[in-house]
Each structure stands twice: as structure tokens, then as C-alpha cells.
Write a structure and sequence with these properties.
The chain contains 14 helices and 10 strands. It has helices at 5-17, 19-52, 86-95, 131-134, 147-152, 161-168, 201-205, 211-218, 237-251, 267-310, 312-320, 325-364, 379-405, 409-414, and strands at 61-66, 99-115, 118-127, 137-142, 156-160, 177-180, 183-193, 207-210, 226-231, 262-266. Strands 2-3-8-5-7-6 form a 6-stranded mixed barrel. Strand 2 (99-115) and strand 3 form a beta hairpin. InterPro entries: ABC3_permease_C, MacB_PCD, Macrolide_Exporter_MacB. It is found in: Cell membrane.
Length: 416
């Protein structure tokens, strides 16, 4: 759509002649693209906030725990509560090749813990060395429990950050000792959640010791409360879940069709369901934004039709003097694209700046919301908006341009 300097001056003169009409028309396109960018940016902030709740936790994991059975099987009556043990974990790791990590946990709640004269009641967790690999936990100082701690049932402890502050204050906790039910454990590290949420508060206060040390020291028996199972890379945990449950049901004599007996929660399914939900939300926001933009485009098209009608005699003169229809079409399309592009890009800039302002303000004031974080405009939205603006200008001017190209010079010159 190449036009000479005189043509552009003529188009600008026409727009200036009808400033109010041009301004109101441009406002419709400006508002449409502004709303499109704004709602998509805020929608992205909502999406970031929800996914931020997952933290750094692995997505291909599931939680498994025992439940009361509901069906009789092999001489066992319903209502039985199976007990998962450490050898179940070993069987899963040895039998199922699609499983990468199995991290068990056994908890003792409200246990008195002392450091000198300072005492608190805390949750004591018995774990292996791989729980920190699958849960959204962060090591602040020192180290986590390791394989040698497990093999030798060492009396070492990794302390939650809040508990460390309460028991040790400003002192360095690493290398010092705490008493758990009269038994001394050496502190080797401090840990906490990646993000402090209501459901991660317990991680700030818990104390982790080797699972084998818990068995030997407190006589809990080789049982576990639950375990976290991580699938191998490129393996869906939803494929591993039935294999794990079938193996456990077989080992604990639970009916294969019993809906209970072995409970599980699949984080992958939860993650995918939220992903699909936000995919639908994004599609809806695009629909609403494009609908608003189309309203502005219709306004541009109507104004261009009025402009062509007002300039019928002028167009007739041009054609009578030998101007080809293509030049008339280019002139009308150029005017349409100029209105939509100028107002649309302005709306894009204002919308982007507003989203950036909200994000910067939240960071500057350290505002943290559970379900809203870092609103942003992605590159795909920016590119999509530019393409949409270009197409909008062409579409808005297509019908008026076609109407102008069909003007009969004889009829136009007689038009009053």
C-alpha cells in the first residue's frame, strides 16, 4: 500500500477536517485493543499467582497413604487399616522402573523439644534423604540428612527455620544439640518452604531426623504415614499411579477393585487441570477482547462508508481524469489503516504501560497476594495484537474501498 506524499497529506487533511468524528472512531479501536491487552495481562497475573502456589515442587509426583478397606478379600474383613512399611518403599523402587524417587515420612506430633532450658512442642519427621528432592523445601544453612545418616541411623536433625530462631535465637544452630524426648540430636542444617503459605507453615516449625534413627530411638516400628512418589523424566505419574496402587494392594491383601485401601493424590492431574482451566480463561479473555475490538472496527468501517459517500463527487472526478480503481482503493484503505493503527498502537502502549505499572508497584511495595503475581504481557500477545491491528485496518476499509472503486464517474459528477 504505497502512497506518495501528496496522498498522505490529503488523508491527514481529511482527518483533521472531521476531528471529532475521527477522534470518536479512534477511541473505539483504542478502547478495544486496550481492554484486550489489559484483561490478558491481568489474567496472566492470576495464572502466575496460582501456579506460583506450586512453588519449586516437582509436578510429576503423587502422594500415597493407607486407608480403611471397604471390601473383604482373601479372608480379611472390610474396615481393615493397612500399615505401610519401609519394605514397601523398597519393593516399589526395585519393581517399578518408571519410578525415580520414593520419599516416605513418619511423623510424631506435639513432641517436647529442648535446647538447654528453652523448650517447644514440635512435629518430628522421620525421612529418607530424598524428600527434599520432591517437596518444595529449601535448605538455608548446613545440609540435609544423607545416605550415611540413614545407613548408620545417626542422631542428627535438620530444623525448621522458625524452630531454629526460637531455640537458638541469634546463635548459629549448626553443630549444636537439641533434646527430643530426652535423646540428643545434633543439628546439621536448617530448612523451610520455598514459599510461606498457610499449608507450608508446618515446614517452618518441623524437625527432620533420619527415618532409621526414629525407628531405633523411639520404637515406632518400621511403618510410615505416607510417601511421595516421583516418576522418571518424560514419564507421566498418572501412568505410574495405578502400578503403585496395584503393587501395594497385592502386598497388603486388598481387593483389586476396592476403591479405598490405598489413597492417593496426583499432583500432575491437579497441575494439568489448572493448566487447562487457564487455557480456557485465556481463550475467553481473547474472545471478550476481540469482541470489544470488533465493535471499534465496525465503527471505523461505518465512518469510512460515510467518508466515501461524502467524497463521491471527488472520487468521480478522479476516475474521470483517469485514476485507476486501485488508487482509490489504496487511498481508502490507507485512511482506515492509519486510524486503526494509530489508535490501536496507542491502546497497546497504554495497556502495556498500565500492566507494567501494576507489576512494578507490587514489587516496590513488596505486595504478595496468594492468587495474583507479576501481571505481564507475553511476546505472543504483543505479536498477536500487532497482527490483529493490521488485519483490523484492512477489514475496516475493505468494504468502503470496494464501494469507492465501483463509483460510476458519470453518476458521481451528477450527484449533488
Amino acid at each position: 500500500m504505497l502512497l506518495d506524499r501528496d496522498s498522505w497529506q490529503e488523508i491527514l487533511a481529511t482527518l483533521k477536517k472531521h476531528k471529532l468524528r475521527t477522534g470518536l472512531t479512534a477511541l473505539g479501536v483504542f478502547w478495544g485493543i486496550f481492554m484486550l491487552v489489559f484483561v490478558l495481562g491481568m489474567g496472566k497475573g492470576l495464572e502466575n499467582g496460582v501456579f506460583r502456589g506450586f512453588g519449586e515442587r516437582a509436578k510429576n509426583i503423587m502422594f500415597v497413604w493407607p486407608e480403611r478397606t471397604t471390601m473383604p478379600y482373601q479372608g480379611f474383613q472390610p474396615g481393615r487399616y493397612p500399615t505401610f512399611r519401609l519394605d514397601d518403599i523398597e519393593a516399589i523402587q526395585e519393581t517399578l522402573g518408571d519410578v525415580q524417587h520414593v520419599a516416605p515420612r513418619l511423623s510424631m506430633n506435639n513432641v517436647p523439644v529442648y535446647r538447654k532450658e528453652i523448650g517447644e512442642t514440635r512435629e518430628i519427621r522421620g525421612e529418607l534423604d530424598n524428600m527434599i528432592k520432591v517437596e518444595a523445601l529449601k535448605l538455608f544453612t548446613g545440609r540435609y540428612i544423607n545416605e550415611r545418616d540413614i545407613e548408620e541411623a545417626r542422631k542428627v536433625a535438620v530444623v525448621g527455620q522458625r524452630t531454629a530462631e526460637l531455640l537458638f535465637g541469634e546463635e548459629e544452630p549448626i553443630g549444636q544439640y537439641i533434646r527430643v524426648q530426652g535423646v540428643e540430636f545434633q543439628v546439621v542444617g536448617t530448612f523451610g518452604p520455598q514459599q510461606v503459605k498457610p499449608w507450608t507453615e508446618s515446614d517452618m516449625e518441623a524437625i527432620v531426623i533420619p527415618l532409621t534413627a526414629m525407628y531405633r530411638t523411639f520404637g515406632t516400628g518400621e511403618r510410615i504415614d505416607y510417601f511421595v512418589c516421583m516418576a522418571q523424566p518424560n514419564v507421566l505419574v498418572s501412568q505410574v499411579e495405578p502400578q503403585v496402587k496395584d503393587l501395594l494392594k497385592k502386598r497388603h491383601h486388598i481387593h483389586p477393585e476396592d476403591p479405598r485401601g490405598v489413597g492417593s493424590f496426583n499432583l500432575e492431574n491437579e497441575f494439568l487441570s489448572i493448566t487447562n482451566l487457564f487455557g480456557g480463561i485465556q481463550a475467553f479473555l481473547w474472545f471478550v477482547g476481540i469482541g470489544t475490538l470488533l465493535a471499534g472496527i465496525v465503527g471505523v468501517g461505518n465512518i469510512m462508508l460515510i467518508t466515501v459517500k461524502e467524497r463521491t463527487k471527488e472520487i468521480g472526478v478522479r476516475k474521470a481524469l483517469g485514476a485507476p480503481p486501485s488508487s482509490i482503493v489504496r487511498m481508502v484503505l490507507a485512511e482506515s489503516v492509519l486510524i486503526t493503527a494509530t489508535s490501536g498502537y496507542l491502546g497497546l502502549i497504554v495497556g502495556t504501560f498500565l500492566i507494567w505499572g501494576v507489576s512494578s508497584l507490587m514489587r516496590a511495595n513488596d505486595v504478595v497476594l496468594d492468587n495474583f503475581h507479576n501481571p505481564e504481557i507475553s511476546l505472543s500477545v504483543g505479536i498477536g495484537s500487532v497482527i490483529l491491528l493490521t488485519l483490523s485496518g484492512v477489514i475496516a476499509g475493505a468494504i468502503p474501498a470496494r464501494h469507492a472503486a465501483r463509483v460510476n464517474p458519470v453518476v458521481a459528477l451528477k450527484d449533488e
